[in-house]
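Is pyridoxal-5'-phosphate placement plausible here? Inputs below.
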Amino acid sequence: MAQGDLSKDLEAIVKPLVREPLLSIRPYVPGRPIQDVMREFRLEHVIKMASNENPVGPSPKATAAIQDMLQDLNRYPDGAAQDLRSAIAKHVGLTESAVFVGNGSDEVIKMIAETFLQPGDELLVPFPSFSQYDFGAQVMGATVVPVPLADGFQYDLDSLREHVTEKTKLVYLCSPNNPTGTWLTHRAAAHFIESLPEKVIVVCDEAYLEYVDTPDPLRSVEFIESGKPVLSLRTFSKMYGLAGMRLGYALGHPSLIRYLHQVREPFNVNAMAQAAAIAALDDEAHVQTSREVNRLGREQLYRGFERLGIPYIPTQGNFMLAEVKNGQHVFQELQKLGVIVRAGFPGIPEYIRVSIGTPEENEQFLKALAEVLGKIKELG
Ligand SMILES: Cc1ncc(COP(=O)(O)O)c(C=O)c1O
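Reply from A.M.:
I modeled the complex. Tokens:
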């Protein structure tokens, strides 16, 4: 069949039709897929430590649940995700009307922006942090106010508080923060939230909550229970190993949650994702194993970085930052050795972010890094 001729350039006609705020949005840069790197560098074995995925894999209970529902794929999913919301509600100790599910927490972040933000509104975000917060706000034409983290990428909540103005509608707190791995204590977050005007909504992104093993971790559900305008964001993409399924959720007072439904597509969470998530929530063994693999992997990488003399940022997530001077160069060179990490986060060009892998993956990464930096001897 002949291919249609698309050579005529319509840019001059189309561009003036596009909504103004969209013109300055820079596209999201995801971790590179394994296949891409295999093809580019003609490699047979490539490991991906770039997207904070669970190296253990998905819960076997979740994959079995997906298998079980395949013969029903001719049916639309339950648009209200009743069973899933009920399972999540039980898991977190809130009512179903406080649970809102989305096609990944990425979608929930966008829907939060669509629900609450318009031109003239301000959104406070820690910097550096997860880029999707900016994206949602930019789509809506709202103003993003980045508030730099302090030394060692620690939260500076006093500074965050000082940036609150009459126009501030939303404040994002991400703990553990992506890409830095640094975290908030519950006490500090509570003090901050208490200090805010009532009309400011705080979104606590707890995508990596299940990995946290520090004293006094952020427990944002307690803010919701005490009637604060707080939304908690969670995901099945990290600890639950279901990134490919796309499922995230928000928790919040029903008065907030009901408005998120105004921008929700009728069937935004597919049937496989719903079945998989219900099963994954019930698989405590998978969670325990994943947590332990991450804890040991974190120690392994800490020790490796120390031997190589590379400064790193202690983390409470399943990833960490290492200071390698020229992040982009190290990222490129690591790919040639079959290891994909991330670099090029705004404001921190000297760092790479590596996701914690299996013991074998961590070992391969450390060896490759030593080679790239000419430090093979130090690894011993
Ligand atoms: C802090 C944070 N929030 C949200 C997400 C998005 O998760 P999901 O896969 O549920 O869209 C990520 C993914 O990397 C993340 O790091």
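Short version: The first helix runs from residue 11 to 14.
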